Amino acid sequence: MSHTNIRPYKGMVPITGANNYIDNSAVLVGDITLAEDVSIWPLVAARGDVNTITIGMRTNVQDGSVLHVTRKSSHNPAGNPLIIGDDVTIGHKCMLHGCTLGNRILVGMGAIIMDGVVVEDDVFIGAGSLVPPNKRLESGFLYVGNPIKQVRPLKESESAFLKQSAINYVELKNDYLGEVN
């Protein structure tokens, strides 16, 4: 058994892309694929054991977040993989479970996104929000609450920030990579 933070499970080993930063305290297990320029920050736990996790380019997963999937079953033959698009910012202590996130999304600190949820592109999810199973969040809106509710269309400045947040984290992870090299 490996004692590193990137661990195999049943022969599946996480695949990391170019220029990734994975903090030494984060743990990635099993069928996980990271695109390039992804950053995985301290104490993240990502477990691709009973389904797959895919994380797109320039996405950042911040401290203490948990990423998991739903197993395949007779009532859900495909299960629920976790699919995260490009330029996504996942705030501190979020829980993402068997959901699909598009591109240019900000998931606020402490948010929980449950099985079967689909979040379209260009969405802000407020801190502490709960997205119940199988909900669809439409592109271009701010969502908040427990359970989550659509609040209003995104302002132009908020839409621009979605991409800028990802760029900021690419620059930060590059700084961290420079420290370890």
Automatic annotation (TrEMBL):
It comes from Colwellia asteriadis. This is Gamma carbonic anhydrase family protein. CDD domains: LbH_gamma_CA_like. The lineage of its organism: Bacteria, Pseudomonadati, Pseudomonadota, Gammaproteobacteria, Alteromonadales. It holds the Pfam family Hexapep_2.
